[in-house]
Specification:
By secondary structure, the chain is α+β, with helices and mostly antiparallel strands. The protein is built from 16 helices and 15 strands. The strands form three sheets. Strands 2, 4, 5, 8, 9 and 10 form a six-stranded mixed beta sheet that branches. It has a five-stranded mixed beta sheet with strand order 12-11-15-14-13. Strand 11 (about 125) and strand 12 form a beta hairpin. The radius of gyration is 23 Å and the shape is globular. The protein binds ligand 9MR and zinc ion. Ligand 9MR binds near residues 146 and 514.
Length: about 525
């Protein structure tokens, strides 16, 4: 009994869709009460993700800037804006999030406003089971609501951000008010460099890369500077080493026009990691049992190796990459995936953004063909849904919003490849879902939307004594198999997948925040701002 809208709003000349549930007639009103539109939808259709009877409202013809809401017999929708610049603040906040995740430095008032904290996690770290080996490893971004730092997760976040920059550099003319602002380098690159410098510290002398840098167990809820647990790094993994090699090669290209020395440093680190991979061809990963922090386990490193191979080839033209890539093209790897466990979609983005035509026609056309197959698959799922959401009802695991947002990104790239607005419109529907056009009438981005996430599982948020949450953080979203005590207690059996969510700081399996749930949002918005 409601109308669900994108609570942030819609761009002036864009497609504008909402979802009506349980009833058929509606009115669209301006904030001052003027009726702009009256209408009704045809048949309602059962939607299995939400277990509601719903239909799509198309109000694209409304193009006057302003604040609006829907009204039905049963009540009002959330208010929303129509404006060409409606996503500017969201874009800013979703990027500024990474500054708030910085580890190893104090967040000062002039950049952080009231969300300051002192420098954290600056002690040297030890190599687990080899504790006499200690080194300085500060820097980088806290992964999530915990204070760990994980190379594969970080590489994926930086991957989203740097390919977004490569695709749409003009979108990133944004001053983020961070310590480096004004140095002549786009702030998104300044921010990513903070993570990249930390990656470089995670490389062992032989070129392999340590998997993660965390304490032995997660810290209690406290400010980061009050977390005095010892930090360790866990053994080198082929997953981390391959992602590192790929993202350093990518970064070497992106930073070269701004800083030749840094670009060379990244190039050499990438090549050293790549040689380590060649000398260690199998999957190498162990999450030591004595360490209870996040695992980011992954049973297959072929996709990580593929990303590294493609980036290495683009950077150096190394002959051995050609045959390896041709072999990899035959493997059963999803070459559209952009998540922390499956990364071969980044290899495809590397190929699509290459203007020097260094890849074979076969590789280019096969990857484009597969990308469009995936985009068409998403399109057909979204067409069947009253939310126009490209998700199946069995598709809501921990971090389901990463699936929604990377689906959004895939559709954006399909639009880029074809110029066909059908893909752009479908991409925007995925964004609409994140920002409130869902059966919980809920925006998963803090500080954005009338009914937005306010109590995410994030240590500083719960410990800083400030009621308000920092704006621009993406919550993980509905999880059909919640595994934390709060969510297990509060979500009853049989709840529709789209509703398996609680906005409670203790519900880490539905309501944590992470860098790689924000980065695909930044990627999508770079196409729209
Ligand atoms: O995002 C990860 C999710 O896909 C996994 O199901 C889950 C359990 O392994 O872990 C999530 O990642 C968490 C990581 O392990 C530790 N930092 C917080 C991450 C987000 O919840
Ligand atoms: Zn820290």
């Amino acid at each position: 009994m409601a109308v669900y809208v994108n609570q942030e709003g819609y761009r002036t000349h864009a497609q504008k869709h909402a979802t009506i549930s349980g009833e058929k007639t509606y009115r669209l009103l301006r904030a001052d009460g003027a009726v702009i539109l009256e209408g009704s939808v045809g048949a309602l259709k059962f939607d299995d993700c939400s277990a509601e009877d719903v239909a799509v409202i198309d109000f694209s013809q409304v193009t006057e800037s302003g604040r609006y809401y829907f009204e039905t017999e049963n009540g009002k929708s959330a208010a929303f804006t129509i404006d060409e610049k409606v996503y500017d603040k969201l874009f800013f906040d979703s990027m500024k999030m990474f500054y708030f995740q910085r580890c190893g430095i104090a967040l000062e008032e002039k950049y952080a406003g009231k969300f300051t904290h002192k420098a954290c996690h600056c002690k040297d770290v030890a190599v687990l089971r080899n504790e006499s080996v200690r080194f300085s490893c500060n820097g980088g971004w806290h992964d999530a609501g915990d204070y760990g730092r994980y190379v594969t997760a970080g590489a994926v976040a930086v991957g989203h951000l740097l390919y977004a920059y490569e695709l749409h550099p003009e979108a990133f003319d944004v001053n983020l008010n961070i310590p480096e602002s004004g140095n002549g380098v786009p702030d998104i690159l300044n921010e990513c460099r903070y993570e990249l410098e930390w990656f470089l510290k995670m490389q062992a002398a032989d070129g392999g890369v340590y998997h993660k840098c965390t304490s032995i167990h997660h810290a209690p809820f406290s400010m980061p500077e009050d977390d005095l647990l010892d930090f360790i790094v866990t053994p080198v993994s082929s997953l981390a080493t391959a992602d590192f090699s790929a993202v350093c090669a990518l970064a070497s290209r992106i930073y070269r026009p701004f800083d030749e020395v840094f670009a060379e440093q990244l190039k050499h680190a990438s090549m050293k990691a790549y040689d380590w991979l060649a000398a260690n061809p199998g999957l190498i990963f162990e999450d030591p049992k004595e360490c209870a922090t996040g695992t980011y386990d992954d049973l297959c490193d072929a996709d990580e190796r593929m990303w590294a191979c493609v980036e290495m080839y683009r950077m150096t033209g190394r002959e051995d990459c050609v045959s390896l890539l041709n072999r990899m093209m035959e493997l059963q790897i999803s070459t559209t995936a952009l998540g922390w466990g499956d990364v071969a979609g980044f290899a495809a983005l590397c190929v699509f953004t290459d203007k020097e035509n260094c890849f074979s026609d076969y590789v280019v056309s096969a990857l484009k063909g597969r990308w469009m197959d995936e985009a068409n698959r998403l399109l057909s799922i979204s067409k069947k849904s009253g939310f126009e959401l490209a998700m199946h009802s069995y598709d809501f695991p921990w971090g389901s919003n990463m699936i929604v947002l990377t689906n959004c990104d895939k559709l954006m790239v399909a639009y880029e490849l074809t110029g066909d607005e059908t893909y752009l419109n479908a991409a925007c529907c995925q964004l609409d879902y994140i920002l409130g056009r869902n059966a919980l009438n809920f925006s998963y981005v803090t500080g954005h939307g009338e009914n937005a996430c306010a109590h995410p599982h994030n240590r500083p948020t719960e410990s800083d004594g400030i009621d308000e949450m920092i704006p621009g953080f993406v919550s993980g979203g509905p999880n059909q198999n919640p595994c934390d005590e709060v969510a297990m207690k509060m979500i009853s059996k049989g709840t529709a997948p789209m509703k398996c969510y609680v906005d409670h700081w203790g519900a880490f399996s539905t309501n944590e925040i992470t860098i790689y749930w924000n980065s695909p949002l930044v990627f999508a918005l770079a196409f729209l701002v």
